[in-house]
Amino acid sequence: MQKFISELNCEYKEKISALLRKGTSFGISGITNCAKLILLSQFLNCQNKNIIFITETEQNALKYQCDLKTLFDCTSVIFPYQDGSIYDSNSKNLYKYAKQTEIIRNFKEQKIIIIPEKALFEKFPDYTYYEQNKITLKVNDEINTEELIKRLVELGYKRKTLVADIGEFSARGDIIDIYPLTEKPYRIELWGDTITDIRIFDNLNQKSIEKTTKAEILPVYKFILDENSFKKIEKLKDEDNQNYWEILNALKNKDYFEGIEYYESYFNPNLEVITRILTSKDFIIVLDDYTQIKSRYEQICENLEKQYFENIDLKMALPLDKMNHKNLKEFLTSLSSYTKIYFDNFISDEFEINIELNTELIPYFSSGTKDISEYIKDKIKKGYKVIASSDYRNRIEEILKEYEIPYSDNTFNAAEVYITNNLTLSGSIIQDCRLAIITDKEFFNKRSKDITAKRYNYRRENQDFIESINDIQEGDYIVHMVHGIGIFKGLSKQKIDNEEKDYLTLEYARGDRLHIPAEQINMLCRYRGSGNIAPTLSKMGGNDWNITKSKVKKAVEEVAQDLINLYALRKL
């Protein structure tokens, strides 16, 4: 199919090729979503350029990714974004960050990188940061265990008894387990100071999966704390803000506290938006629904700035030396080094060159076999190549046989219908290419379901962690990993940044409410108290929950030490 599309005789093809050879940016209007798939495939074959494709929503990105694979067997990668706001005090999902880091470090190997718009508001270090600060461990290397542990802590790793999640490590005698920004953790076995074995193991059952000869350990965060980190925050002199003293105390000990990412601009001033990080002459940028992307970008900016200043006024956060996101003008400037192609429904004066295509949607047949056959025959008669995209191949074949319409797996025979799997996007007529793509939506009035995005969840050992909305009821006391004890007030649909999602509403002390995306339900666990006494609700933005956790941790450590002493006495 890829070869067939690349050899299609399209009226616009030579003009687009000439513009891309010159590195000239341009707009394309009058284009359906299905036609965009054809263009993306053709761009790949033109001047051997790879593509960064910016979409308005994650769902759009998932559909394009799915259909590129279905039609052209073209593999693309979606750049994930963090749930919630960049001005939240929540710690970020390290599993998503690991995927982001993987793409940044290997972006030149990707043919198509699809970036949902919300990912444009995050900032990242470039690939040199990871190369300069990584730890490389190899079989037969001589290492100093104490120095390695010290370096792991400097890079943001937390020491645990058992490694379960990214950002953790354990040291037990001659075995060091490390879970870096990779899919699975590493187990380093030593003989004295020599590494004798490196294995990848399963964090769920702790069993080895396979051997390897090398392990790369990247920093957990986008910055590394040092002596200057404390001084940068100290200069703020916000002495009336309780957060100021708590953060100073943490930084004095080089502690990567919960929500430290909010202050990333202080600790690494070289962070940039992803379109700056992925800069390469081998890539072109394609913006989907450009007018919509600009409008939504400004709306998201407005919401982010509102949240930032509200947090400052309520003393829930300290002021930043610069914002964690770029405004629209700054973002568009970040695209200046690329050749850009703007997909848009409107002809805009913003583009010096605009190519208007002749495309149209396919009519709905609602299973009317006679209408289907007449439509296909008419298109073939007019010289169109017809592609039937359906999950009901047998039914399509029956219809074609009944009305004596030839079909085959040969894409190059214009007189025969080519049958492939169904697309998630609607079908389209692309007159400039003499191409008609008909999907189940048109054949049978069957809407495609939304595609479920990959979940990046932390491992939870405790059965009290909540995995489904069915596990809790309105009015139940719950514990949020970051914000502490609250009351679950129900599930609601909310439209934020033009994207409608399910949100869980939690109520805290003073009536403060927190709305978290439903996919973050794994951040919650059931409250287990003694008796029927109602617990004291935590204060949002305060440090009472961290103090409570510290006290419990200290008490547990004291009990553990008492048990060790008791067992030692018994042995005597």
Structure commentary:
The structure is a single chain. This protein has 572 residues and is an alpha/beta fold. The chain contains 17 helices and 28 strands. A 7-stranded parallel β-sheet has the order 3-4-2-15-16-1-17, with helices on both faces. Strands 7-8-9-10-11-12 form a 6-stranded mixed β-sheet, with helices on one face. A 6-stranded mixed β-sheet has the order 18-22-23-19-21-20, with helices on both faces. A hairpin with a 5-residue loop joins strand 26 and strand 27 (513-517). Helix 8 (227-234) runs antiparallel to helix 9 (242-252). The longest helix is centred in the last third of the chain and has 28 residues, at 544-571.
Number of helices: 17
Structural class: alpha/beta
* Amount of helix: 25-40%
The portion of residues forming beta strands comes to: 15-25%
Shape, principal axes of CA atoms = elongated
Low-confidence stretches: none
Main beta-sheet annotation:
7 strands, parallel
Rounded mean pLDDT score: 88
What's the total number of strands?
28
> Within the largest sheet, what's the order of strands?
3-4-2-15-16-1-17
The whole-angstrom Rg is: 28 Å
> End-to-end span in angstroms?
77 Å
